[in-house]
Amino acid sequence: MTYRSKLLGAAGVCALAALGANPAHAAGTTAGSTITNTVSVAFQVGGISQTGTSASDTLTVDRRVQLTVAEVGTTTTTVTPGAVNQVTAFTVVNTSNAPLDLALAAAQQVGGAGAHSNTDTFDVTNVRIFRDVNNNGTYEAGTDTAVTFLDEVAADASVQVLVVSDVPLGQANGAVAAVTLTATGREAGGVGSLGAALVQTTGANTSGMDTVFADGAGATDSARDAAFSAKDDYTVSAATLSAIKSSRIISDPINGSTNPKMIPGATIQYCIAISNASGSATATSITVNDPIPANLTYDSTFGVKTNGTATIASGVATCAADTTGTGTMASNTVSGTLASVAGGETKTVVFQATIN
Q1: How far apart are CA 290 and CA 272, in angstroms?
Q2: Which pairs with CB-CB distance under 8 Å and at least 24 residues apart come from 40-49?
Q3: Are 309 and 347 in contact (CB under 8 A)?
Q4: For 319-336, how does the pLDDT look when each residue is reduced to its tens digit (9 = 90+)?
Q5: What is the pTM of this model?
Q6: Are 115 and 71 in contact (CB under 8 A)?
Q7: Is the Cα torsion angle 137, 138, 140, 146 positive or negative in sign?
Q8: Ordered domains of the chain (ranges, CATH)
Q9: Which side of the chain, N or C, has fewer Cβ within a 10 Å radius?
């Protein structure tokens, strides 16, 4: 194709666009399609119209490979230690002017900045990728389809993808696991199988359909590599419980309650304080079990009192008298249940025993 014919072809494209012959798409004119325009030349000789001449030019539209991956939403996924099938969601868009297969890969980050002004500190487990069949952002076993690639994604089409993972037990409150989803363009045309790797056309423009990588740089990939990547992350919301057990002497059989001593027959009060650190998730269904040593006798008259408050100073807990619940004594073990302990809150289990 000569430089002049290329100019004529470009002019033809403009003219056709102005006439509405090619509908406008974000992806542009479909790769591989041909654009033909014809120029007509009319002239006269001696004032008499002569048979005119014409010339046509046909060009083939090249393939522009371009895609994007974006996190769905703008916040981290809040998870609890031990939770399974936790979701980070992404939208994958084929902004090329041709259908593509899109290979998918989910990678764990090793330290460094996460997606939401945080820092990666741990890895999730059992990482899988699913196509979100009904686009609701929720993983539904039996509905959403496990995938390693997106098959035959049309130009301008978008697909929602879920990265689904499990959270190990023992993670601290505020711990972050960052994940990156990368989509890579591949050849389309074979339904049900991942197409071959794309090859960018080098050198001068050819008469056939050339391939041009036009993608930008993603979170971890480079520009013009036929791929795009985006980050999302999980942030742990955990309870951070601590327990302090303290004792104080109430009375003894010689001194009564005035300067009592730890002698046989003395009554001891035990204060068990369960605290949850500020900013932590609320802990629920907390069970406290405390076996009674053989040289103590449980005070059944006092019983087991729960859900009171305490003051803590220098590692010693002093339980207040207020209580809203009762515990039990069975098999020589004191038990108390706390329905919940919120972040920054302390609740207690209190009982008494006599020294044998």
Answers
A1: 9
A2: none
A3: yes
A4: 998 888 899 999 999 999
A5: 0.80
A6: yes
A7: positive
A8: 3-61 (no CATH), 65-236 (2.60.40.10), 241-355 (2.60.40.2430)
A9: C
